[in-house]
Write the C-alpha cells for this entry.
Amino acid sequence: MSVTTNNLKTIRFKNQLYKDFSTTLNSRVNEYFKERNLDRYGNWEMVLKTIFMFSLYLIPYGLVVGGVIQQVSLLFLMYFVQGVGMAGIGLSIMHDANHGAYSRSPIVNKILGYSVNIVGGNSTNWKIQHNVLHHTYTNIAGHDEDVSPKPILRFSPRSQKLPIHRFQYIYAWFMYGLMTILWVTIKDFRQLVDYTKSGMLKKQTGVTRAWIWLFVTKLFYYAYTLVIPMMVLPFAWWQIVLSFLLMHYVAGFILGIIFQPAHVMEANEFPMPTEDGTIENNWAVHQLQTTCNFAHKNRIFSWYVGGLNYQIEHHLFPNICHVHYRKLSAIVEKTATEYEIPYKSIRSFREALVLHGRMLYTLGH
C-alpha cells in the first residue's frame, strides 16, 4: 500500500510482515458476515438514526425560522440542540456515507455524504484529509493532518515543540470547539488550495468542478443559516451570529473530544518512515499500534458517536458500517492477542479524556 502526499515522498508499508495476521483477520471477519448472512452495510438501525440526527438538526431550525421561538434564551437553546445534531450527523451519517459504508448503493452514499456540505463542511476535502491521508498514514507527522495541526497545538512527538505548548493541556479543550467554525470559514478554502497545488484534488475529482461545488455549497449554507434568519427573525443580527457560533462550538467540541482520544494517547505510536519512505510494519498492525478504543460497554454513547469509540475496527475496516463494530471488536481483539499484537481499549470515555489530557501535557513539556 502506498499513496503520495503533497510534500513528502511516497510511503510504503511492509505488508509481508505479519501477513498471516492480516489474512487470518480478514478471513474471520468475512466468515462472520457469511455465517450470519449479514450485509456489511447499514440496516434499519441506520435508517432510524439518520431520521433522528437530521431531526435533531432540522426541527430546531424550523422552529426558529418559522417564528415559533420569540425569546433569546430559547433561540440559544435551539442552536445548542442543532450543534448536538450537527455533530451526530457528522459522526453517525456523513462519516459512514463518505467511506462508502452506509449503503450498498453508491448513489445513497454520495447523497448522504453531501450531508457534510449541508452542515457547512466540504465532502471533497473530507475524503482527501480523512479517507486518504488519515486512514493511510495514521499518526505519521507531516502526512496525517489530524496529528499535524497548526503550530498552536502539538499532537505528535515528531512535531516541533514551542513554548506555548506547555499550556496546551489547558487551552486545547477550548480550541476543539473552534473546529467546525474554522471549517466553514477558512480551512475548507485553504485545504482546497493545498490539494489543488499538490495534484491530489485532480486525482480525486475535477479541479474546476470541486471549486465551483465549494463556492455553491458555502453560499447555500450561509444563506440558510445566517441570511434567512436575519431577514425573518425579530432578533438582532449579533444575537443570530452568536447563536450560529454557539451551534458550531458545540459541534466542534463534541467532534474534537471524540476523535482526538483515539490517536493522541501515550499508549499509541507515532512512527516515521525511513529515508526511502518505508514504514517498517504491516499496514493493519500499524493501525493497531496508532489507535485505541474506549467506552465499549456504553451502548448509548456508542450509538450517538457512530461507533467511533471502536476506532480500531473502523480503521481496519472503514468500508464496513459502524453498526457491526461491537461484534467485530471481539474478533479483532482475539486475533490480535493470538499474534501478540497489542489491542488497546480504555474502559470509559472519562478515562480516555483524562489520558488524552495527560498526553497533551506530555507533548507540551
Q: What stands out?
A: The mean pLDDT is 93. The beta strands are 2-3, 11-13, 278-279, 293-294, 345-346.
